[in-house]
Amino acid sequence: MTGTTSERRLDLEREVLRGVADAVGSDPDLRVVCSRVAEAVRCGRTTRDVYVYLYEDASDDLLLVGATESPAAREVGTLRVPYGDGVTGWVAASRESYVVAGEPSSDPHFLPYPGIGEERYGAIFSVPVVSSADELVGCITVWATPGDGFAAHEVPLVEHVASLVATCLERERLREQVRVLGRTEEGLRELGELVASRAPVGRVVDRAAALALAGLGADLVVALVADPSGADRMVVALASGSDPERRAPAAAVRRGLLEVDHDLRRARITWQVAAERVTRALEGRSQPLATAAVRSGPDELGRIEAHVLGPGRRPTAPAGLLPAIAGQVGVATRLGIALEELADRNGLTWFLRAVTSGRLAGDDLRRRAEALGLDRAAAHVFVVACTSGRTASSAQLDTVLQRASLPAGTLTGATPHQAVAVVPWPSASTSVDALRRPLLRACDHVRSAGAALTVGVSRPAPSVDGFADALAEAREAMSVASSLPEPAGVFTLDDVGHHLLLSRVSGVAGVRDRYAVAVESIAEYDRVRGTELLGTVATYLHLRSRSAAARDLVVHRNTLAQRLTRASQLSGFDVSAPDAWFPLQLALQVHLARSGVPGGGSQDVRPLDD
């Protein structure tokens, strides 16, 4: 009997060592190598599962990089054990093997990780993997099923395996780091060449986001870049993958960021406001990896930020990589603006950019206006247009305004996503209503092509000194109007007054009274549960009748009552009480404006005496 046991032990050791020898250096992917080492240690025994961890000093934890076929196999590359925590973490910290011969959950060092099937096991041991320089490389952890305890030779055998693979794992880890650094260096070189070749800023930002995504090992990169012309841009890069725990968060994040991008393209918000909304959209859904400002000299032109989605995973971000990428984007942005200015030095687009940024004022402003053929002493009206729905280029927008039969002497120009017209006007006191008819015809023309044209019109500027304010006024009217349920049309600030107030309040993060908190609580409940409580409350507040609201929502009155009761429980007060109607409607409108969701329609605020 003794001889048979000894022979089995020797056979096991030979098979394990042969499998380890075959695994070492068998694949350039370190995870594949580690999984093969784990299978070699298991040696076909269904009573054992083996995990291989690598230590990452930057994050001071152990990352699962290899596992036998088990529930934990899907956590390879994701599961992290803090240094010093749990059996594996304790072994890493003490550099000594540790055995729990029975009931692992009763051991003081045991730390459960839900979802990886640890309840299947009745014993565990872990051994450290240490390099010849006495540096921690990782750990090998072995589990046994209940009733199949460890033989006396198993721990020494795995310790021997750890000493054999230590050099290999350290070497492969360093090789992988060198490969990543090499790819990153090549990416930075290509990005620099792209900037030097005077490539369009959009192309540079796209390439920069992709490089940051790969170089940082991130799931998400958001780049926000300013342009004084009003054409601030946002680029979102999302890593592709098959991990279902990241696909769902990625889809949810993408929807929220697309809304921000839409508003930024329509010049409804600046990149700074977009950055705040991105932060809110990602709150609780991601872990920030790194953030870097996009600068050109003292000017801050934007920012780039990298995130990981889902719990657990936090790759080590190479120091200085994101600032280097952001620096290239800053150079490209400034260079692009300078080249456009040189090409259009005497054109309306450059003039509008300079007016917006404040670089033109006083005598310089008057001289430039005269060079364009503008009477510096006469009144002018600014018209700004954008489209929604089917994509239309700024050049097409410019053509639409050129064909709008505007008064003689009108100048038109285009910036990305906008077209601008400077219209000579009889006097500062003359109404701008005469402009509505030709501009509404332009709206009808664009509508026939399947898009909506939103036009903002300023009050007359009495002289060129008022150009900056008039241009900002027209843009703001267009921006607010473009968020309406029916954005097609011609709008002044007077037309969108209460919507403007709501949009301004929505940008104040500190506005959090009981009604705002109630709306946010209901909206979050809807998001998590997939319900429609907020829409139900909005419809009820508009109609102020349970019967009418039930008919409008096509639900039974009892269903409506249940929804309102649940909304009241979430709010902490009765949402159907008359004294809550008006402030709750205002809070709802602020929430819609803040989240970028079009309001109005059945959710317009009604006064209490309706």
From TrEMBL:
<dbReference type="InterPro" id="IPR041522">
    <property type="entry name" value="CdaR_GGDEF"/>
</dbReference>
<dbReference type="Pfam" id="PF17853">
    <property type="entry name" value="GGDEF_2"/>
</dbReference>
<protein>
    <recommendedName>
        <fullName>GAF domain-containing protein</fullName>
    </recommendedName>
</protein>
<comment type="similarity">
    <text>Belongs to the CdaR family.</text>
</comment>
<dbReference type="Pfam" id="PF13185">
    <property type="entry name" value="GAF_2"/>
</dbReference>
<dbReference type="InterPro" id="IPR042070">
    <property type="entry name" value="PucR_C-HTH_sf"/>
</dbReference>
<dbReference type="InterPro" id="IPR029016">
    <property type="entry name" value="GAF-like_dom_sf"/>
</dbReference>
<dbReference type="Pfam" id="PF13556">
    <property type="entry name" value="HTH_30"/>
</dbReference>
<dbReference type="InterPro" id="IPR025736">
    <property type="entry name" value="PucR_C-HTH_dom"/>
</dbReference>
<feature type="domain" description="GAF">
    <location>
        <begin position="29"/>
        <end position="179"/>
    </location>
</feature>
<dbReference type="InterPro" id="IPR051448">
    <property type="entry name" value="CdaR-like_regulators"/>
</dbReference>
<dbReference type="InterPro" id="IPR003018">
    <property type="entry name" value="GAF"/>
</dbReference>
